[in-house]
Amino acid sequence: MTYLLITIIVIFSLWFLFEPIFSFSKIKVPEESSVSENLSELQKKKIILLKEIKDLEIEYKAGKLNKNEYIAIRNYLEKEVYEINKKIETLKKPL
């Protein structure tokens, strides 16, 4: 009885472990409309981040931020813009 219970637990554990690997049918290729929606969302995020960089420069020049804060925040925002640009370029490439 104990061996049966252990066997069932092991089988279910293995199934939960390996199920994602063998579920190829769940992988979906993005449709053209979803790609264009994602592209427009990314472009909107990019515009917002660029505006935030401009606002950051204004706050720094006004003396609201010290140099270290300004550099850290600017680097973070520029990294985000870079990542979005990479995503935009991959979405623009034909499949």
Q: Overview of this structure, please?
A:
The protein is an all-alpha fold and 95 residues long. The chain has one domain (2-92). It is 77% helix and 0% strand. The chain is built from three helices and no strands. It has helices at residues 2-18, 32-61, 67-92. Helix 2 (32-61) packs antiparallel against helix 3. The longest helix has 30 residues, at 32-61. The protein is elongated, with a radius of gyration of 24 Å. It starts with a helix and ends with a helix.
Key traits:
about 100 residues, mainly alpha, 3 helices
Give a quick rundown of the structure:
With 95 residues, this protein is an all-alpha fold.
| Order of secondary-structure elements | HHH
Largest sheet: none
What number of structural domains do the residues give?
Answer: 1
Our estimate of the beta-strand percent is under 5%
Spatial extent as radius of gyration: 24 Å
Low-confidence runs of at least 5 consecutive residues: none
Number of helical elements:
3
Q: Give the overall shape.
A: elongated
Mean pLDDT across every amino acid position: 81
Termini gap: 54 Å
User: Which class best fits the helix and strand makeup?
Assistant: mainly alpha
Q: Helix fraction?
A: over 70%
Question: What's the count of strands?
Answer: 0
Layout of secondary structure:
Layout: H1 2-18, H2 32-61, H3 67-92
Helix pairs in contact: 2-3
